[in-house]
Amino acid sequence: MGRSKDLSDFQKGQIVMARRLGQSISQTADLVGCSRFAVVSTYQKWCKEGKPVNRRQGVGRPRLIDEQEERRLAFLVQSDGKATVAQIAETLNADHEKKVSEHTVHRSLLRMGLGRRRSARGPTVIPVHRRKRLQWAGERQKWTSPAQGNAETLPDSPRADLGSATKPTDSSCAQELGQAGM
After folding, report:
1. Which of 3, 37, 72, 181 has the greatest CB tally within 10 Å of its CB?
2. How far apart, in whole angstroms, are the C-alpha atoms of residue 3 and residue 12?
3. Could you mention a single GO BP entry for this protein (predicted)?
4. Can you give the pLDDT at residue 2?
């Protein structure tokens, strides 16, 4: 005996109300026009979850792009950030036994949260920029903090003249500080 269609929300509500009003399982099944098993399972779901609405899962055509293919799709998008949906679909179809349309790829990208993406733009690195950047880094390579010894100090730094702060203070200043604290 095959499965009949799902119970409507109204029928599930009828089952719950009839059982709460004290009708038997058989009376409720006759009233709604379903099997006794449907009455029992619907009422049990309502008692456990508080809601009788539960649609059957797995209804409909299976997806062409399953979880494994979605991971592969995400990798393709990540590896080539400027690829269009058509290019991604073409790459995906090259190794896929089932052909996937651009529309399906686009829906999968939207479902994965990759819609309207922009590629992250890095700085333009041409030989002139590279040479200038290396020259700048080479000039500053020996900079260290003043506490580390004889190395050059950073120019225009408020910490450039910390040497005087580490010297012992004058005794008169120490006496003034001691009196101010009393």
Report:
1. 72
2. 17
3. DNA integration
4. 47
**Confidence band, pLDDT 50/70/90 cuts, at residue 1:** very low
Q: Which of 30-39, 74-83, 104-113, 159-168 has the lowest mean pLDDT?
A: 159-168
Q: How many CB atoms are located within 10 Å of the residue 137 CB?
A: 9
Domain positions in the chain? 9-49, 67-111
Q: Are 85 and 120 in contact (CB under 8 A)?
A: no
CB 64 within 8 A of CB 100: yes
Query: Residue with structure tokens 């006794």?
Result: 36
Mean of the per-residue pLDDT values of the chain? 77
